[in-house]
Specification:
Blueprint lengths: L8 E3 L16 H4 L6 E4 L5 H13 L3 E4 L2 E2 L1 H7 L2 E6 L2 H6 L1 H7 E8 L3 H19 L1
Length: about 130
């Protein structure tokens, strides 16, 4: 995955998600990471934030994938989530074993922030459908 001695770090509610620091060492999750490690941000946030966090991570030699999910509590419990991934293609592919445990569908949508853009469209389509019912 990341490297033999550096497993990926998965976060669902990073404390710094709303205000990435310009100083990489001050990022709580990033502070404990080593170059070559991967952070998987599974929060639902703004695409611009995912891009900013990816840039901060890149400065430290750490890869960040934004990977919001759809499927709710049942999908999480049953391992059937849909995972929308934004970031480096090689890094996303290396984490295939993780994606396969978490969900039945995982798709690399593009570069940093693309997972968040896809999740945003997903939510709009769900809301539109519900309003039409």
């Amino acid at each position: 995955m990341s490297s033999p001695n550096q497993p990926p770090v998965q976060v669902s509610e990073p404390p710094s998600a709303e205000e990435p620091s310009a100083e990489p060492a001050s990022e709580p999750v990033l502070h404990g990471c080593r170059p070559g490690q991967v952070i998987v941000d599974m929060t639902t946030s703004e695409p611009t934030l995912a891009k900013e966090l990816a840039a901060v991570c890149h400065q430290q030699g750490v890869k960040l994938l934004d990977a919001p999910v759809s499927g709710g509590d049942v999908g999480a419990r049953d391992g059937t989530l849909s995972i929308m991934i934004g970031g480096d293609a090689k890094t996303a592919q290396r984490l295939a074993p993780l994606w396969e445990v978490l969900g039945k569908t995982w798709v690399l949508q593009g570069g940093p922030g693309a997972g968040q853009h896809t999740k945003m469209v997903n939510q709009m389509l769900i809301a539109s459908t519900m309003m039409g019912i």
